[in-house]
Design brief:
Blueprint lengths: L1 E6 L3 H14 L3 E7 L3 H6 L3 H4 L3 E2 L3 H8 L3 E4 L6 H8 L6 E3 L7 H12 L5 E3 L2 H4 L1 H11 L8 E7 L5 H4 L5 H4 L2 H17 L3 E9 L27 H7 L27 E8 L4 E7 L8 E7 L3 E6 L4 E6 L5 E5 L9 H13 L9 H20 L3 E2 L6
Parallel strand pairs: 1-2, 1-4, 2-3, 4-5, 5-6, 7-10
Antiparallel strand pairs: 7-11, 8-9, 8-15, 9-10, 11-12, 12-13, 13-14
Helix pairs in contact: 1-13, 5-6, 6-14, 8-11, 11-14
Bound molecules: nicotinamide-adenine-dinucleotide.
The site of nicotinamide-adenine-dinucleotide (NAD) has 24 residues, from helix 1 and helix 2.
Length: 391
C-alpha cells in the first residue's frame, strides 16, 4: 500500500488521485490531509479514502504521524513554494503542482531548499511528457529539421474564461497568466529545443476584453443584461461557446481587478531567446473559443519544419529539400493529451524506487524564472535576462 499525504486537496489533485495515480497504483490510499476546508476536501475523496484520511494542521505534523510514502501539494499557486520548501526537508517523493513559485523570492527560496535535499519531485507539467511532445522531441533529436533555428509557439485554450469567473481571477494568488499558464509552455519549449530560455521581451494586454465596471459580486442570475450577454449560461449553451453553464461570477466586474491594482491579462506575447542562440515567439490568447483552440509549436531549421498541435492532435514534418511531407496522427481522449497519466506513471515509479521524474524540481524552477522574466518585461517594456538554476 502507498500511503499518500495531500496538502491542499482541491479539484486538481483529487482529480489526479482519482483518475491517474490510482490507475497506476490501485493500492494507493490518502491517509493524511492538510487543508483548512475539511468538509470540501473530504467530499472530494473517493470512498476508499474517506474512512482512513486524517486531517492535520501542518505538514510537519502530518509527516510526523502519518508514516507517509508520498506527498502531493495541490494548493492554489501562491502556496506551492512555501509548502515545497518544507517538503524539501524530508526524503518523501513529492508531486508538486505548478507554478512552483509566483515570485522571485519564492523561486530562489525553493532553489536553495532543494540544493541539498533528498526529496525527489515530480512537477505537474503534463505537456512536456505528452506522447505528442515526446515524439516531436524525438524528431528534433533525429535531425528532422537539422539544427533547430527558430520556434513559434501558440496557446489559445478555448476555456480561458476560467481566469475571470473562477478563483483564478484573484491576481494576488496567480500573479498573472505567464506564471499560471505559460509556465507549461516555456517548460515544454525548453525540453523540445534542448536549451534553456535566457532572455525574454514580453507584452500583456489587460482590461480590454475581460474585467470592467460591473459591480463586485455580480452573478448572471442577478444581472439585467444576462439575456444579451454572450457569457450567460443560457447564451453559452445556445452558442456552444464553452465555459461554466452554471450561474457564475461576472467576467466584466470590478472584482476581476484593474490594470493598476493587478489583473490577469486578456492576451500576452513573448520573444524568447535560448542559450543555444536560437530564438522564437510565444503568444497566449484567453478569449479564443470553439474552433479557434490551438496549442503547440512550429520548429524550423534549414533542413525542415516540424509542427504539432495538441488540439489537432497531430504532428507534421516537412522536408525542405525532398518532396515529402508526412503527418502523424495521435491517439484521442486522453487527459491533458495523455500528459496526466504520464506524470502519474513517473510519480508511482519514483515512489516505488523504479524510475526518475522527467519533470524534476529544476524544470519547475527554471520555468518559473522564465515566467517571472516575462512578467517583469511586460511591466517594464524592457528585455529581461532569465535567472538560471544553479547560476
Ligand atoms: N498541472 C496542471 O495542468 C493543472 C491543472 C489545473 C490546476 N492546476 C493547479 O492546481 C492548483 C490548484 O487548483 P485547483 O483548481 O485544484 O484549486 P482548488 O481551490 O480546488 O484547490 C486548492 C485547495 O487548497 C486548499 N487550501 C487553501 N488554503 C490552504 C492552506 N493554507 N493549506 C493547505 N491547503 C489549503 C483549499 O481548501 C482547496 O481544497 C493551482 O495552483 C493550479 O495552477 C494545475
Amino acid at each position: 500500500m502507498i500511503r499518500l499525504g495531500v496538502v491542499g486537496c482541491g479539484q486538481r489533485i483529487s482529480g489526479m488521485i482519482r483518475h491517474c495515480f490510482r490507475k497506476e497504483a490501485p493500492d494507493l490510499r490518502v491517509v493524511g490531509i492538510v487543508d483548512p476546508d475539511e468538509e470540501g476536501a473530504r467530499g472530494r475523496l473517493e470512498e476508499c479514502d474517506r474512512a482512513d484520511a486524517v486531517f492535520y494542521k501542518t505538514l510537519a505534523g502530518m509527516v510526523k504521524k502519518a508514516k507517509l510514502d508520498a506527498l502531493a501539494i495541490g494548493t492554489r499557486c501562491n502556496l506551492h513554494a512555501s509548502y515545497a520548501v518544507q517538503a524539501a526537508r524530508y526524503d518523501i517523493p513529492l508531486f508538486l503542482e505548478k507554478p512552483v513559485a509566483v515570485s522571485m523570492q519564492q523561486a530562489v527560496a525553493l532553489e536553495r531548499a532543494f540544493e541539498r535535499s533528498k526529496c525527489r519531485v515530480v512537477v505537474s507539467f503534463p505537456l512536456r511528457v505528452t506522447p505528442l511532445c515526446r515524439l516531436a522531441r524525438e524528431y528534433v533529436e533525429k535531425g528532422a529539421v537539422g539544427s533547430p533555428q527558430h520556434v513559434a509557439a501558440v496557446n489559445a485554450v478555448p476555456y480561458g474564461t476560467c481566469y475571470w469567473e473562477e478563483g483564478y481571477r484573484n491576481y494576488a494568488v496567480t500573479q498573472g497568466l505567464f506564471l499560471q499558464k505559460a509556465t507549461h509552455d516555456f517548460d515544454y519549449l525548453m525540453y523540445l529545443v534542448g536549451s534553456p530560455i535566457v532572455r525574454v521581451a514580453a507584452m500583456a494586454a489587460r482590461g480590454r476584453v475581460f474585467g470592467g465596471k460591473k459591480k463586485a459580486g455580480l452573478v448572471c442570475s442577478r444581472c439585467r443584461e444576462a439575456d444579451a450577454c454572450p457569457e450567460s449560461p443560457r447564451n453559452r449553451r445556445r452558442n456552444h461557446s464553452g465555459g461554466s453553464l452554471a450561474d457564475h461570477p461576472c467576467l466584466f466586474g470590478r472584482d476581476c481587478g484593474t490594470p493598476e491594482t493587478g489583473m490577469n491579462e486578456d492576451s500576452s506575447s513573448a520573444l524568447i531567446e535560448f542559450a543555444s542562440g536560437m530564438h522564437g515567439t510565444y503568444w497566449q490568447v484567453f478569449f479564443a473559443r470553439r474552433d479557434a483552440a490551438a496549442r503547440g509549436a512550429r520548429i524550423s531549421g534549414y533542413h525542415g519544419t516540424l509542427e504539432f498541435d495538441w488540439y489537432r492532435n497531430d504532428l507534421k514534418h516537412v522536408r525542405h529539400h525532398a518532396p515529402f511531407t508526412d503527418t502523424v496522427k495521435a491517439g484521442e481522449g486522453m487527459s491533458h493529451f495523455g500528459g496526466d497519466s504520464e506524470l502519474a506513471a513517473d510519480f508511482i515509479s519514483v515512489i516505488r524506487g523504479k524510475g526518475e521524474a522527467r519533470t524534476p524540481i529544476r524544470t519547475g524552477i527554471q520555468s518559473a524564472y522564465a515566467c517571472l522574466a516575462a512578467k517583469q518585461s511586460a511591466e517594464t517594456g524592457r528585455f529581461v535576462n532569465v535567472r538560471q538554476v544553479g547560476g
